[in-house]
Amino acid sequence: MRLTGEVRRDQNIATPQDKNSKYRAVERTARHFNPLRVPRALAAELPYKSQIVQMRPQKKKTYMQKRAVVVGGEERRARDLLQKLTTIRKDALEKRKAKKEEKRAVFRKKMADMNEKKEAREKREKQEYWRKEGRKRQNAEEGGGGKRRR
Question: pTM of the entire structure?
Answer without folding.
Answer: 0.39
